[in-house]
């Protein structure tokens, strides 16, 4: 006959197993508040993340703008359980005033989703935290917006009261702490950006320099003032004066495009510089170039640099913000300290408008006003790589090695999931 103690032990064992099973299978419901009307690195990374088949995680998208870029729609629909708009209900846009309409709408959306965690992407002013369900934790995900101008009080009210902050680089964390005076006891997590799977070459192959062709240099960026494209053009001029055979390929479009074309003509470099506009196949672009340049005045991380490195391109970059976290000076490329005053930007072909207030100096460990990369210094480092094939080959090998280990997408997903599990 079965004893009462045996029945009790059996029931207790079953109950414990049932509760453990519930805990293990319970879905973590994540709501993402993100701007998706543009197509850049943040938006691309988001699409990859929500389609990464993370076990027991359910994603809900809340667009902070009233539209989602068409090129992203398919991936957003595939990876999201539901899609909502912060400032739009069904087909009706909600006016800014009276404010309670948007406030009530967002509260209803969050109540409907009932998220375990809400992640606010790259919007340090955030939203009214009183709208959250009581069980929901909030995480802010910094991807470079800390360098921009915002309402200081709103930034403080939001970030100082979130459960945690994820930063795409150590420089991003420093910018939040030094520029915005965010509390140092905030739960910070560094989660370096990763190379998106379809941007990884099918075969990793180091480059060599037989010198049977011009030294092909590449830049890939939106053509805006803070990317410093004119500095790369000026470096090509300097190299031509030194009789170094070289060519610059520029991938990207933007408001500075006409001005950069004009600068190219003024310097008689039409045969040495190729404007590639938007490039669909970046792998082919990276295969065409030998070395990647990033002379930016501000760069919170520099994912495009990591992508170029995965294709065997040593990188020469400005030693500012997050770029030294991607490029190790003298190993897989060069980090050059900017030294020129921004007042010289116009004379070099640039525009002084819409430049950042500050950049983070890894040399001085503090935020400083932006400076320009000297085109002569850029040319010096390009010439060194061109003149030393053994060094170039070694750097190409190290670039691939760094990309495969530091910026691996699977590692990024594991790191991201581990962070979420802490909440």
Contiguous low-pLDDT stretches (5 residues minimum) are 16-24
CATH superfamily of the largest domain: Glycogen Phosphorylase B
The percentage of residues in β strands lies in 15-25%
Number of strands: 17
Which strands sit side by side, in order, in the main sheet?
A: 3-2-1-6-7-8-9
Q: What's the end-to-end separation, in Å?
A: 48 Å
Helix content: 25-40%
Q: What is the CATH topology assignment of the largest domain?
A: Rossmann fold
Q: How is the biggest beta sheet arranged?
A: 7 strands, parallel
Kindly describe this structure.
The chain has 13 helices and 17 strands. The protein has 423 residues and is of the alpha/beta class. It folds into two domains: 28-194 and 410-421, Glycogen Phosphorylase B (Rossmann fold, 3-Layer(aba) Sandwich); 201-407, 3-Layer(aba) Sandwich (Rossmann fold), CATH 3.40.50.2000. The strands form four sheets. It has a seven-stranded parallel sheet, with helices on both faces. The protein has a six-stranded parallel sheet with strand order 12-11-10-13-14-15, with helices on both faces. β4 (88-89) and β5 (92-93) form a beta hairpin. The two termini are 48 Å apart.
């Amino acid at each position: 006959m079965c004893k009462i103690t045996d029945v009790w032990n059996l029931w207790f064992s079953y109950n414990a197993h049932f509760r453990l099973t519930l805990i293990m299978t319970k879905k973590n419901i994540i709501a993402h508040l993100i701007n998706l009307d543009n197509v850049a690195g943040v938006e691309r990374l988001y699409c990859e993340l929500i389609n990464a088949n993370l076990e027991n995680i359910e994603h809900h998208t809340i667009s902070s703008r009233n539209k989602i870029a068409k090129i992203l729609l398919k991936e957003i629909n595939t990876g999201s359980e539901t899609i909502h708009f912060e400032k739009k209900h069904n087909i009706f846009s909600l006016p800014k005033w009276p404010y309670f309409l948007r406030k009530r709408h967002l509260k209803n959306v969050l109540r409907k989703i009932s998220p375990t965690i809400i992640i606010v992407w790259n919007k340090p002013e955030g939203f009214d935290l009183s709208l959250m369900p009581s069980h929901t934790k909030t995480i802010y995900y910094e991807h470079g917006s800390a360098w921009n101008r915002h309402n200081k009080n709103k930034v403080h009210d939001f970030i100082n009261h979130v459960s945690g902050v994820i930063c795409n680089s150590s420089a991003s964390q420093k910018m939040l702490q030094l520029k915005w005076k965010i509390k140092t006891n905030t739960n910070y997590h560094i989660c370096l950006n990763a190379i998106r799977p379809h941007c990884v070459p099918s075969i990793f192959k180091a480059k060599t320099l037989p010198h049977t062709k011009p030294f092909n240099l590449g830049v890939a960026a939106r053509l805006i003032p803070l990317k410093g494209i004119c500095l790369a053009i000026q470096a090509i001029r300097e190299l031509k004066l030194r009789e170094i055979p070289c060519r610059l390929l520029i991938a990207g479009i933007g408001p500075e495009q006409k001005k950069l074309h004009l600068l190219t003509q003024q310097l008689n470099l039409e045969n040495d510089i190729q404007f590639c506009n938007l490039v669909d196949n970046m792998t082919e672009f990276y295969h065409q170039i030998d070395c990647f340049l990033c002379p930016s005045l501000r760069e919170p991380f520099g994912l495009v640099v990591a992508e170029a490195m995965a294709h065997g391109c040593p990188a020469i970059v400005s030693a500012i913000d997050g770029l030294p976290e991607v490029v190790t000076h003298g190993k897989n490329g060069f980090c050059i300290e900017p030294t020129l005053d921004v007042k010289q930007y116009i004379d070099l072909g640039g525009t002084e408008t819409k430049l950042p207030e500050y950049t983070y100096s890894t040399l001085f460990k503090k935020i400083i006003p932006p400076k320009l990369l000297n085109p002569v210094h850029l040319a010096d480092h390009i010439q060194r790589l061109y003149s030393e094939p053994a060094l170039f080959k070694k750097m190409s090998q190290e670039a691939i090695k760094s990309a495969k280990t530091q910026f691996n997408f699977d590692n990024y997903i594991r790191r991201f999931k581990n962070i979420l599990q802490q909440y």
